Structure formats: structure tokens, C-alpha cells
Amino acid sequence: MSKPAPKRGKGPDGEPRTYIVSFHIPKALLDALDRLVEMGVFNNRSEAIRTALFNLLREHREVLERRQMMLGYR
């Protein structure tokens, strides 16, 4: 017997695949973001923001890892 398909938007563990995050940004940043979407660089705002956040976290990965190590030694 096959497993039932996960509910829409849920992973195999039942947790959401993505989460909604709300934040405020200046109009100039929003306009620039929308221009990138209009130019076809990104499919939508969410994709652009996910990519930017991924790049930010990758850039600061060492800081995150160092912090995790420090917490592990307590």
C-alpha cells in the first residue's frame, strides 16, 4: 500500500515546507526588487528574497558555525 501524498505545502513530516515572514523595507528597495522581477531575473518577490537571504547566510556561515561551536562548549 502506498503512502498518501503529503498535504499541499507540507513536507513528509507534516511540517510546512516554507513559512511566511512579514517585514518592512524602504520603498526604494521594494522598487528595485520589483524591477528585478519585471526584468525576469526572478520569478517573483519571494524567490528574490529567498535567494538574497540564502546568499547572506552563506556569506556569514563562519560566524554562524563559530557561534554554534561556542554554544556547544557550554
- Secondary-structure-based class equals mainly alpha
* Distinct helical segment count: 3
Characterize the largest beta sheet: strand count, sense, and whether it forms a barrel: none
Overall mean pLDDT score? 87
Proportion of helical residues: 40-55%
How many E-type strands? 0
- Low-confidence runs (pLDDT<50, min 5 residues)? none
Rg over CA atoms: 18 Å
Distance between the termini: 47 Å
Question: Order of helices and strands, N to C?
Answer: HHH
**Approximate strand percentage:** under 5%
How does this structure look, described?
This protein is an all-alpha fold and 74 residues long. The chain contains three helices and no strands. The radius of gyration is 18 Å and the shape is extended.
List its traits:
74 residues; mainly alpha; single chain; 0% strand
Question: What's the short version?
Answer:
This protein is mostly helical and 74 residues long.
Give me the secondary-structure topology:
Elements: H1 27-38, H2 45-59, H3 61-72
